Amino acid sequence: MTPAGPLGDHPQRDYARKLQLFNAFAGPDLQALMSAAGVKPGMHVLDAGCGTGETLERLAGIVGPGGLAVGVDLSAPHIAASASNAIRTGQLQADVARLPLRAGSLDFIWCANTINHLRDPVDALRGMSSLLQPGGRVALGQSAFLADMYFAWDLRLERLVNEAVRQYYRERYALDERDLTSVRALVGLMREAGLDDVRPQTIAIERISPVDVATEAYLREAIFLQTWGERLKPYLAEADYAELERLCDPQHPSYALRRPDFHFIHTFTLVSGSH
Q1: What confidence category does residue 8 fall into, taking pLDDT thresholds of 50, 70 and 90?
Q2: What is the DSSP string of 230-244?
């Protein structure tokens, strides 16, 4: 069995719903980044860490019938969800750090919110680049490279909540923040792996009230309940946790997503390099 990664990933781990919520929220913005990064019709592309397949389908839409889109993910439940949704793609359950593909067979590799799950990201990047044809590109994407903004009106509470989340994950996975440097070091990882023509691009995905259905579902379920929720109670002062509960409760008059001053900014950074 593949050993668990630094964030607890293993072949049976399943957070498909969270991935689906994020892709419904951010998918159109990410598709624009794919084209800007160099994905073109007719290409052979790989989604390394394809999750539940929504991004893989977008890649397939760009490369068209003359191209090929393949997704790889460690999680069997994610691959099952991807295969059930996909109509123009292929999926493989495999470790992104040991991809079972032929050298020189790809034109482009997309790898979003995945590299920080790997124990040796530089080695994984070198393995990915070996799969590219000369001049092919690999693109690493990462959410929240810059801090997201949730509560435009309360910087203090936002700072405390973000620190509480970091403390929770440090304790859950017994990691020091320095163990997760790869989240912020995409340019350095690219250069250390020997990639050329390294290009970064960061976008801001912004939403204000009234938010659309996909945004509310993502924020309510994936952030307010799954990322925050009861797990943050031990890490916040009682009054601060009570305020957070009110802001996250759709039945409360203070519900953040209905406030006229609600302004959410989610950042996504993509760094690409050529083989």
Answers
A1: confident
A2: GGGGGGS-HHHHHHH
